[in-house]
Amino acid sequence: MEAKEQENSSLRTNNSRNVSEIITRAYVFAPVSNNVKLVISTAMLLFGVYGLIANSLILYFKHKQHRRRRCAIQRALTRSALKEYFINSLALSDLLCCLISLPLVTAEMFIDFVHNDWICKVNRFLNFIFPVITILNLLVIGIERYFAIFHPFKVLARHKAKKIVMGAWVLGVLLTLIPMPTYKLIYFEIEENSYTLICKYDNTLPLYRCLFIAFITICYIIPSIILIFVNLRILKFVRRKRCRVAPLQQVKTSKRTPSQTSRFKVTRMFMWLILAFIIPYLLFIVYNGLVMVLRPTISFTSDYLARYASAFFGFSNGAVSAAILFHNEKDLKRRLGDMLCNNCNQSQIYPDFPAESNP
């Protein structure tokens, strides 16, 4: 009897110590150096502002170009019309990513607004939805380029192209819902008397791990395999065609039609866009996939840096894609130059005179 009473008293004292330790622990918000936060947030904001301005200009120029095409022949169902649809959809998803997703990730570094699991899920949904839609847009573009090169006479109808673009956006919303059950506020012990809460995927349950791996596989691995295959086939086709006509280079350049030249230029531009998608998201997918599967023990600072660095590379895709479009689209560069020249001419015609001083 005395031994049992001693065991019960020892258990009571241990439980009271654990409860007191939990109660006395202080909550610390994002215990990472402010210099690290400033460097990451500054880089994100610079890419975000550039992506916001560049994609807005792309949509504005394409809208003006579409309004000027009032002739029925110019609005025919051609590859050029399909290219415009896909570029507009891609620029819109990148614009919304720079306008909504990236500012939320940056604000989360400095403002403690994620107070429960539902806010965490909504926040991560808004972080993921537009990059996922961008991935699906690039997948559609890659498949369309494949048919443009190997089946040039098969052209999608205008209404089918619109349905495909709308389907990419709806499918992006549905696919983004797959990993949302895995995200919640995760308790992370910093020191003996402090802890923090982070909005992160929960890798403790096998179901959550399966959902997250399925999301990575459907939204990144499978599209990357398809796009790499398409790019390799197109590169092999172009290289074989160059080798075949190398002895007759002058004849080739003289007999190449404008439609063939335009088709290869557009294909080259979209291939760069596809590479700009695969490389930036690689770090995010590899890191989160390994953490979800292997479940290693990582310090809070290392995990914080890895997550936000991979997020930075992923969100930079919107700015990189806009830069590629401006570099390869002569019409966009011409319109941008005309707009800048008009602004310069107006400033020269109407200079700012200093205000007259009263006598």
From TrEMBL:
The chain crosses the membrane at residues 38-61, 85-105, 125-143, 164-186, 206-232, 270-293, 305-326. It comes from the Eukaryota. GO terms for cellular component: membrane. CDD domains: 7tm_classA_rhodopsin-like. It is found in: Membrane. GO terms for molecular function: G protein-coupled receptor activity. It is a multi-pass membrane protein. Keywords: G-protein coupled receptor, Membrane, Receptor, Transducer, Transmembrane, Transmembrane helix. Its main location: membrane. Residues 54-325 form the G-protein coupled receptors family 1 profile domain. Coiled coil: none annotated. Belongs to the G-protein coupled receptor 1 family. This is Neuromedin-U receptor 2-like. It comes from Actinia tenebrosa (Australian red waratah sea anemone).
